[in-house]
Amino acid sequence: MSLDIRYSKKSSSKTSANVVLFVDEKFNISSIKKHLSSSEFSYLNDLLKTFDLKKNMFLFEINSKKKIVLIAVKKIYKTSDVENLGAEFYGRIKSEKKSNFSIITDSLKSNQENFIEHFLHGLKLKSYDFTKYKTKHKKSFISILVVGNKIPSIKNQFKFKALEEGTFFARDLVSEPGNILHPDEYAKRISSLRKDGLKVSIYDKKKLRQLGMHALLGVGQGSIRGSYLVVMEWKGGKSNSKPLAFVGKGVCFDTGGYSLKPAKFMEDMTYDMAGSAAVVGLMKNLALKKAKINAVGVVGLVENMVSGNAQRPGDIVKSYSGKTIEVLNTDAEGRLVLADALTFTEKKFKPKFIIDLATLTGAIIVSLGSEYAGLFSNDDNLSKQLSKAGDKVEEKVWRMPLHKNYDKLMNSKNADMQNINYVGGAGSTTAAQFLQRFIMNKTPWAHLDIAGMAFSKYGGALNSGGATGFGVRLLNQLIEENYE
């Protein structure tokens, strides 16, 4: 679907084009009378008397050339409700044969800040689809002219466009098949972000060996592809201010290794790099909107395959931190990638905080389904900030426990620790306890397990199924509210 949105302050009060008008929640149309001809007003007034007005919007066909969409606006809205309304509007018009609409912003009586911006944001997020590999995909086009005195400012247009581009970039990355977006190609795509103003540094296998990142390298050693740590830096704040750090798991395809996954649904393991995609999308967004902060994004890119050179259950590897890990299950690989990435990020950048994102455990889906990401943290303030930001943009997080007694379950007889808990239970918590061991200097840290949120089979309020881009908008909101 191709979507074109343009803006104009000038509009005639009565137009022959398809129009979108905002009314109150009772569908009282007296306030929009000036935007309608007398015949249109009478026609709509009579029709509405026969309707059950419990819906948010109605589309009326006035004649063969004109349609009018009425959207009910409540007195009080959450930001996410406005975005959902925009997404609902897109769902209503996407199948219309004539897809040219004018949104009359002057019909809006709500004083809610940035209502139109959030309405359009929801509309655009919902319009995303990934049809790159469909040879016979029917192309359709929707043109929307936003007119009147309440159109978004240039500044807000710029800001929301950056966020959408970052989210869509993340969705594109997650949507790509594993034979296309392997670690080599992924590193190249991240390097292309230099044009947006990011400093991109790529550490390949040779450099990673020199650094001693054997936990990360062990995961990728069974693949013919490379393994990488890619660092993205944005410097928009004061030169002496500590950066905000974001770390992502980038397992481009996860067979499970010798601890092989079942064949059923293994094709979905292309999205095991969704945590890294969120970090990449966020960094693109920050660069595009020229965010007034310093930030660093670090992603570990590997492919977890089966071969004569693949890591075996029972192998012991030495991490970048110096700690040794007994690999009891090669399908608990994401935490090995993050272990090295977390310590590297903390040591090299000494950030204000570190937030990592990963599709880490199936256990978090058992706990929270597809409504909340699991939040684990050593810092109450950071946790509160994340929860508040998540509620605002409907990328919700739920804090889960960390405790020293869980930590004991990850101790190994043969190494400093093991990568799974063989006692059973608390799979997501013990994974987080494992990661916490690699935060060496008590830096405020939060781990987001997004296994249930990164991909949607059936679609959600702001996506039509497939990759969601979860995390980009959440972290952008966190930054805007607390750090910019």
Describe this structure in words.
With 484 residues, the protein is an alpha/beta fold. It has two domains: 2-151, Leucine Aminopeptidase, subunit E, domain 1 (3-Layer(aba) Sandwich), CATH 3.40.220; 159-482, Aminopeptidase (3-Layer(aba) Sandwich), CATH 3.40.630. It is 33% helix and 23% strand. It has 14 helices and 19 strands. The strands form four sheets. The protein has an eight-stranded mixed beta sheet, with helices on both faces. A six-stranded mixed beta sheet has the order 1-6-5-2-4-3, with helices on one face. A three-stranded mixed beta sheet has the order 11-12-16, with helices on one face. Helix 8 links the parallel strand 9 and strand 10 (294-304). Helix 8 (274-288) packs across helix 14 (472-482) and helix 9 (334-349) packs parallel to helix 13 (427-436). The longest helix has 22 residues, at 154-175.
* Unreliably modeled segments: none
Q: Helices and strands: which structural class?
A: alpha/beta
Roughly what percent helix?
Answer: 25-40%
Measured between the Cα atoms of the first and last residue, the distance is 34 Å
Number of strands: 19
Task: State the CATH superfamily name of the largest domain.
Answer: Zn peptidases
Q: Into how many domains do the coordinates divide?
A: 2
Overall geometry comes to elongated
* CATH fold-level name of the largest domain: Aminopeptidase
